[in-house]
């Protein structure tokens, strides 16, 4: 078979450009990434061999070998793991088949030094080889297959892949199974050919890897790492640096862990957990598939990193391993879906993680640290409020929100309830996409005048969990954009006298005119308790969807029709008073009809809704400006 020349996926080319020109101080991590991949390949073959023992026949021991060649200026990283065929090579080394990749890479600044720190959210894996190599060759043979494949690239936009012809097979026959990566080092990277330098890097980054890492070609060479599963060691024997490097290996991450959890459970079920909460938000955190990155082992044998029911979707930011003593080694991924032991593991893991997060949240000295965690992962935890009734109470204790009175700081619901005004019976909130824009909403005016604190909810999931939870600490959640405002019951507010209002009869006549003019465009027109500065606003009726929620559902094509809204007018606003006087005096009705439509359009604009007839709005506005200039 002849070699094919193929182009990298656009996202790969972008990533390679960043990696190849990254910070010099970070270059040594290429070895960590390649060793981690080799370790994963060995784990996957160990699992496959449980049901297909012939795959490891004649070579049952797993190892990773690193061979520097000063004469050829090459560094080779070889493993006898699962190996790859042509399809695997193209998919794994030519494509990044992960949702959100393009969006993530588009968001990068173009400053390679800054962007490299963000790649910690992504993980560069194999492509880190191009930090030190100007050409990379991969020789690989999938376990159980006869064909040896070769992949090669200079990292500049294309690669070649093809079966190795008999006449070009390496002198040693190439790997009998597994993968051999040959790095042709760039000028100036010769220190990666020094045994002492390599040994130091292995000890620093890969000491915890359970597969022996052998340095050199001799069969008698001793492993350069401890070669034992880190999670099986006593906590007292593990340093923070070792935990950090294991997190980098298990999570294929560049950031440091925000929280490390290492425990052994004994009793009804026995298992060990070594889990990490990242300090940075992974780029694919909001991937629709909601996959976690926790690896499942059974008695130190890797089983899968796709056991969906091992960790709830709202804890998918976790990284690490769970090692069970009770699951059978030959369990299939299909059997895992409905396995009762796995359900108990999930329960234990969830309880442990929530317990540790609760400690962090309750510690006043950790408030700033916890706030950083919440900013990164709070939106995901709130999914649990919506879908996991069993853990709702614990999650409500973890909840942090910004409010109209918090000055941008995050507070808990207990703090909010403790600051509620006399006569206040509900936890008020307003939902939207931007906190700064929400704080300018007319619906908040009356609440601000009364000194009532309002939650500013800006995550898409907020509308859903609030509607599901309904109440906290005995207080119902209530949107300030829905239903009639009950501000009259709340004590407090400014000492300034209320604004002058039109006579009740005049106001009633104006409202009747607005209803008649606007017709079915609005559900109702009424005097507002919530407005103090603005003339008008739109609100949802008590039984209708919240305005922001309806907009979200329409954007995602989950809703075809929109409910008509209630138009509230502020009796104390000068414009409303003048209009009431005009109506009472029997002024020109045509002009007042135009005003009615302008008021409705003004309320729509403030609410962020598109105008159904921008041309008519523009005409009416021009007409009134003309009249004002002529007066």
Could you please describe the fold and organization of this structure?
- Belongs to the heat shock protein 90 family.
- Residues 26-189 form the Histidine kinase/HSP90-like ATPase domain.
- Keywords: ATP-binding, Chaperone, Cytoplasm, Nucleotide-binding, Stress response.
- Homodimer.
- ATP binds at residues 33, 37, 79, 84, 92, 99-100, 121-126, 179, 333.
- The protein is built from 20 helices and 21 strands.
- The protein has 4 domains: 4-226, Histidine kinase-like ATPase, C-terminal domain (Heat Shock Protein 90, 2-Layer Sandwich); 231-365, 2-Layer Sandwich (Ribosomal Protein S5, domain 2); 401-496, Rossmann fold, CATH 3.40.50.11260; 504-630, Heat shock protein 90, C-terminal domain (Four Helix Bundle (Hemerythrin (Met), subunit A)).
- The protein has 631 residues and is α+β, with helices and mostly antiparallel strands.
- The chain has an 8-stranded mixed β-sheet, covered by helices on one side.
- The longest helix has 23 residues, at 29-51.
- The protein is 36% helix and 18% strand.
- The mean pLDDT is 86.
- Main sheet makeup: 8 strands, mixed
Unreliable parts: none
Overall shape: elongated
Alpha carbon gap, first and last residue: 88 Å
Q: What is the name of the CATH architecture of the largest domain? A: 2-Layer Sandwich
Q: How many β-strands, per DSSP?
A: 21
By DSSP (H or I, 4+ residues per run), the number of helices equals 20
CATH class of the largest domain: Alpha Beta
CATH fold node name of the largest domain: Heat Shock Protein 90
Percentage of β-strand residues: 15-25%
Summed over residues and divided by their number, the pLDDT gives a mean of: 86
CATH superfamily of the largest domain: Histidine kinase-like ATPase, C-terminal domain
Domain Histidine kinase/HSP90-like ATPase: 26-189
Family: Belongs to the heat shock protein 90 family.
Keywords: ATP-binding, Chaperone, Cytoplasm, Nucleotide-binding, Stress response
GO cellular component, one term: cytoplasm
């Amino acid at each position: 078979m002849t070699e094919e020349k193929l182009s990298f996926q656009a996202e790969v080319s972008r990533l390679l450009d960043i990696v190849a020109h990254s910070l010099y101080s970070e270059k040594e991590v290429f070895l960590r990434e390649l060793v981690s991949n080799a370790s994963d390949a060995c784990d996957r073959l160990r699992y496959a061999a449980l049901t297909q023992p012939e795959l490891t026949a004649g070579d049952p021991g797993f190892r990773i070998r690193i061979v520097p060649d000063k004469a050829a200026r090459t560094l080779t990283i070889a493993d006898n793991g699962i190996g790859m065929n042509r399809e695997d090579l193209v998919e794994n080394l030519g494509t990044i088949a992960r949702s959100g990749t393009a969006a993530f890479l588009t968001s990068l600044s173009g400053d390679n030094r800054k962007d490299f720190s963000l790649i910690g959210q992504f993980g560069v894996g194999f492509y880190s080889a191009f930090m030190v190599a100007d050409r990379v060759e991969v020789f690989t043979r999938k376990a159980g297959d006869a064909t040896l494949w070769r992949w090669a690239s200079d990292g500049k936009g294309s690669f070649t892949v093809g079966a190795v012809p008999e006449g070009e097979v390496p002198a040693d026959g190439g790997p009998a199974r597994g993968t051999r990566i040959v790095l042709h080092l760039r000028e100036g990277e010769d220190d990666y050919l020094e045994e002492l330098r390599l040994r130091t890097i292995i000890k620093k980054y890969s000491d915890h890897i359970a597969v022996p890492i052998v340095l050199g070609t001799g069969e008698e060479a001793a492993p350069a790492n401890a070669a034992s599963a880190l999670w099986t060691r006593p906590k007292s024997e593990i340093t923070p640096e070792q935990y950090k490097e294991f997190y980098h290996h298990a999570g294929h991450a560049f950031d440091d862990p925000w929280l490390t959890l290492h425990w052994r459970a004994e009793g009804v079920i026995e298992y060990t957990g070594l889990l990490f909460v990242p300090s940075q938000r992974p780029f694919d955190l909001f991937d629709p598939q909601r996959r976690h990155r926790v690896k499942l082992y059974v008695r130190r044998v890797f089983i899968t990193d796709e056991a969906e029911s091992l960790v709830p979707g709202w804890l998918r930011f976790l990284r690490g391993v769970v090692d069970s003593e009770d699951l059978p080694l030959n369990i299939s991924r299909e059997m895992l879906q409905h396995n009762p032991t796995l359900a108990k593991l999930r329960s234990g893991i969830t309880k442990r993680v929530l317990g540790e997060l609760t400690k962090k949240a309750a510690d006043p000295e950790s408030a700033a640290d916890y706030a950083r965690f919440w900013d990164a992962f709070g939106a995901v935890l709130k999914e649990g409020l919506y879908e996991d009734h069993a853990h709702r109470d614990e999650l409500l204790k973890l909840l942090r929100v910004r409010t109209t009175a918090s000055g941008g700081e995050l507070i808990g619901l207990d703090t909010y309830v403790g600051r509620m005004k006399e006569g206040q019976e509900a936890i008020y909130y307003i939902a939207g996409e931007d906190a700064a824009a929400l704080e300018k909403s007319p619906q908040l005016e009356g609440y601000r005048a009364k000194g009532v604190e309002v939650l500013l909810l800006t995550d898409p999931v907020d509308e859903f969990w609030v509607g599901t939870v309904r109440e906290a600490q005995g207080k119902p959640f209530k949107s300030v954009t829905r239903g009639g405002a009950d501000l009259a019951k709340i004590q407090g507010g400014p000492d300034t006298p209320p604004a002058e209002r039109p006579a009740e009869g005049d106001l009633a006549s104006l409202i009747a005119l607005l209803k008649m003019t606007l017709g079915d465009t609005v559900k109702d027109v009424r005097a507002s308790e919530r407005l103090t500065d603005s003339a008008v606003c739109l609100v949802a009726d008590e039984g209708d969807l919240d305005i922001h929620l309806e907009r979200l559902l329409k954007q995602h094509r989950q809703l075809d029709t929109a409910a008509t809204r209630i138009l509230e007018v502020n009796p104390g606003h000068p414009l409303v008073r003048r209009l009431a006087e005009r109506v009472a005096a029997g002024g020109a009705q045509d002009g007042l009809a135009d005003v009615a439509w302008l008021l409705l359009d003004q309320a729509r604009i403030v609410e962020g809704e598109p105008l159904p007839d921008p041309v008519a709005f523009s005409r009416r506005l021009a007409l009134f400006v003309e009249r004002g200039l002529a007066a």
